[in-house]
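B., you asked whether I could sanity-check this one before it goes into the benchmark set. Here's the sequence:
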Amino acid sequence: MNDRRWGFRTRALHAGGGPDPTTGARAVPIYQSTSFVFEDTADAADLFALQKYGTIYSRISNPTTAAFEERMASLEGGIGAVATASG
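And here's what the prediction gave me:
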């Protein structure tokens, strides 16, 4: 998504997210899950080997963190960002 056309304040609220295709909700929800389901062991292996993009485990990635990383990259003018757990 090219959100450079948006101003800083708009990007601070909306970068990294979009309307939910099912519910139409505009705000990115907070996913309070620690683990995610895999299609099979090959799918899990691909995700952990970083051969495939997706959610693995909340300390590594989850949809809320991904939206935060995209938002921070947009605000800083970067091409990507990494958020890490501190707990």
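One thing to flag: Residues 7 and 75 are 9 Å apart (CA to CA). Otherwise nothing jumped out at me.
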